[in-house]
Design brief:
Length: 167
């Protein structure tokens, strides 16, 4: 069920969130975190990531509206790391209102991932609070930290997520 906040998100933000959830619903291992698979899932082509160099690919969307864009990034496996994946909404003004891209409430992410075999686990901090939330499936671990989201009218919106799983 789509929340009122999601329904008012920019169409491009809703489409990106839908592509992300569809991809994460079907991915079964880090071997699938490759440019061709990710590009197909999002309907885009990932190209070389000049900022990170060899072994990295990226896609940066055109403006979704109000200065917001999204990024999809992939990194190839290395001896100490599996293939990696990142997704995030971006705005050049870090203080910009994120309401236009609140297309992925945390509750929707949780429901979708758990329905497709992902296991949620909290990562506690040293002083008893929650440092992060991880979603694990086979050899993939997705990580969400407080900086990966925002609260909009009492709804926790996911603005980014990434794999964080060394060998």
């Amino acid at each position: 069920m789509v929340s009122s906040l999601e329904a008012h998100a920019l169409p491009g933000a809703r489409a990106a969130a839908d592509h992300l959830l569809a991809f994460l619903s079907t991915v079964s291992s880090s071997e699938m975190l490759v440019p061709a698979q990710i590009g197909k899932a999002f309907g885009v082509t990932l190209g070389p990531d000049a900022e990170n160099g060899a072994g990295w690919t990226v896609y940066h969307s055109s403006d979704l509206g109000h200065g917001w864009t999204y990024w999809v990034q992939q990194s190839d496996a290395k001896p100490s790391m599996k293939n990696g994946f990142s997704f995030w909404f971006d705005h050049p003004d870090r203080t910009a209102d994120a309401t236009p891209v609140c297309a992925l409430p945390l509750d929707r992410l949780r429901a979708t991932l758990t329905a497709h075999g992902w296991v949620e686990r909290p990562v506690p901090s040293e002083i008893g609070s929650i440092l992060a939330i991880e979603f694990a499936k086979n050899d993939i671990v997705l990580t969400l930290t407080p900086r990966d989201g925002t609260d909009i009218n009492g709804i926790a919106c996911v603005l980014s997520l990434q794999t964080a799983d060394g060998r």
